[in-house]
Amino acid sequence: MRLEFCPYNLIFRKPAGTSRGVLTEKITCFLRIFDEADPSHYGIGEAAVFPGLSPEADERYFYKLMELQANIRLGLQTDLSCFPSLQMGLEQAIRDFTAGCEGIYFNSPFIIGDKDITINGLIWMGDYEEMISRIEDKLAAGFKCIKLKIASIDWSKEIGMIEFIRQRYDSDKIEIRVDANGGFTMDNALARLRHLADLDVHSIEQPIKAGNPQLMRFLCDISPIPIALDEELIGKFTPESKAETLDSIKPAYIVIKPSLEGGFSGAGEWIRLADERNIGWWITSSLESNIGLNALSQWVATLNQKRPQGLGTGALFTNNIPSPIYTDGEKLKYNPDATLDRDVIDKLDWR
Length: 351
Prior knowledge:
alpha/beta; Enolase-like, domain 1; TIM Barrel; 2 domains; seven-stranded parallel β-sheet; three-stranded antiparallel β-sheet; 10 helices; 13 strands
């Protein structure tokens, strides 16, 4: 077997505000695996490394990628436990290759168009007017779960955005999730959580920075709204460390990102541990291209999760790879008559 890789720079249609600054582009890496006897018949995957967030986003990344490439040629195993995006990309490529190289990663009614996935409407960071406009667009499109990135502009304006929704829709009509990306401090966290509770906010992701388990546990115990762990999960690669995180903090929810947490296998382990503890969860994408989103969506469809998921749509990028997934309002769907565009993939700079 052989493995080739292709770094690929995704270009945003509009600058995207995140907790780590404004993004205009994002690097990702495609992987393909094939038998030397027939290089045109390959399984495709995506290692969606996220600079500033992925634990392997440093100079080790391409060294490990070349090690993986050499080991696959030699038939040897590679330890990817600390390289979750590579684990995710490799799992995808192997699944695609094994299933016949047609972009089918998981069989379910989703891939024949008989099932869809409910997703939340993500409101990217921006100034007040931009975010209000985006909220209006999502509500008009029929989204019943709105996720707001907060702790980036003036707090009174962020509360104003939530009030804007609540003045029009009660919590039984529109669910509001917020994500602070660790932007609260212990000095202001409780007051802000109470303010959010007054507006019937469903939950908050990562109110304070990851790495403070005792303080996070304290907030989980006293918060008037449920707390979901997000960045807190990154870097926990063993079942023991995952269980310890859940047992020590006791969150209401966890937000699982397979590209940051060890692929389908690592994410599945988080799901199992959460279910054993009656902790809720949902799956979130990590700015993957349509290659990764296609595989991720097919996996999510097998989980039979009713809660809205945090899956991207691929519409963020000007140079995405055409794929069968598309959105219809708040529903993510699969067109069984379409495929990943392998002609585009074949012309990329494979190494």
